[in-house]
Design brief:
Blueprint: H1 3-8, E1 12-16, H2 20-26, E2 30-32, H3 35-42, H4 48-59, H5 65-87, E3 92-95, H6 104-120, E4 128-133, H7 136-146, E5 152-157, H8 160-168, E6 173-176, H9 179-189, H10 200-214, E7 220-223, H11 229-233, E8 240-243, H12 245-252, H13 264-269, H14 279-287, H15 290-319
This protein binds erythose-4-phosphate.
């Protein structure tokens, strides 16, 4: 059996890409997108039709170039999501603009707008996860949205405070990042690689999963941001793992067993203590984790950079 099929016995496999054709190849259950992935896909000639249709919707709108650009981007994100949902049986994650990362009201409004567009196109909201950065403001927005059956995927999750606050807010799913934590510690330690046994990104996801299972939180854990197939394999048993097409290809191309790594027994052995966080407690605990502070801030900047590139791409089309 190839290692991708072996992994699927323990974990729901999700494709981490906006590339619809790549998703078709690996038969994942769900798919995740982000502004960087949509930008990469939108620039490809084979998705020109999706770009053109989003453009047509934007051109028909009243308002100035700024409003039309926003309409174009919303339509484009939903157009990719809709195409992906023709292939995957499960859900697609669509990210809100990174500029809204510290704006609870703005995030709620954008999420509602995206869901409105999906529902206009006949997509059930149960099949969509609105992806929001795991800031305090983002987590509050998610708590409100979940009350209206708008399900959320809290992303850019690097630290334990973020994970605890998301679970307490009752969000549907969290995406703790592995690779960016690994990147941080590789740079900090000045090494080329960190062995899997010592990988802080893998350990972070294992701890969050164990915490949720130990204390009965229903929030699903989806490990994200992988740099090596070994990191994926070490998290077999996690609820979901979102994996890039490159690593999906590697896993599908090699045979071998993938034993379950995350188990209730291993979780119990960690002897975790339950904590509760209000805003002050969240900010304090999050702030005490230098890596999480740096990577959350950087993650927001990077998604914003690609969203702005996407906006320039949109402006050129809208103007043309
Ligand atoms: C998925 O939800 C994340 O956006 C993605 O895994 C990030 O991966 P990266 O760290 O390779 O950008």
């Amino acid at each position: 059996m190839n290692r991708l099929d072996a992994l699927k016995r323990h974990t729901t496999v999700v494709a981490d890409t906006g590339d619809v054709e790549a998703i078709r190849e690996f038969a994942p259950q769900d798919a995740t997108t982000n502004p960087s992935l949509i930008l990469k896909a939108a620039e490809q000639e084979r998705y020109r039709d999706l770009v053109d249709r989003s453009l047509a919707a934007a051109r028909g709108r009243a308002g100035g170039e700024r409003e039309r650009t926003e309409v174009f981007l919303d339509e484009l994100f939903v157009a990719f999501g809709r195409e992906i949902l023709r292939i995957v049986p499960g859900r697609v994650s669509t990210e809100v603009d990174a500029r809204l990362s510290f704006d609870t009201e703005g995030t709620v409004a954008k999420a509602r707008r995206l869901i409105e567009l999906y529902e206009r196109d006949g997509v059930d909201r149960e099949r969509v996860l609105i992806k929001i950065a795991s800031t305090w403001e983002g987590i509050r927005a998610a708590a409100l949205l979940e009350q209206h059956r708008i399900h959320c995927n809290l992303t850019l999750l690097f630290g334990f405070a973020q994970a605890v606050a998301c679970a307490e807010a009752g969000v549907t799913l969290v995406s703790p990042f592995v690779g960016r934590i690994y990147d941080y510690w590789r740079a900090a330690r000045g090494v080329d690689d960190i062995p899997l046994d010592d990988d802080p990104g893998v350990a972070s996801v294992a701890r969050i999963w164990s915490y949720y299972k130990t204390f009965g939180y229903r929030t699903e854990v989806m490990g994200a941001s992988f740099r090596k197939a070994g990191q994926v394999v070490r998290l077999a048993g996690c609820d979901l793992l979102t994996i890039s097409p490159q690593l999906l290809t590697e896993l599908a191309g090699s045979d071998g067993d993938v034993p379950r790594a995350l188990t209730p027994d291993a979780a119990a052995a960690l002897r975790l203590e339950r904590i509760s966080l209000d805003e002050k407690g969240f900010r304090w605990l999050h702030n005490s984790d230098e890596m999480a502070v740096a990577k959350l801030a950087e993650g927001i900047r990077l998604f914003d950079r690609d969203a702005r590139k996407l906006e320039r791409f949109a402006r050129e089309r809208v103007a043309g």
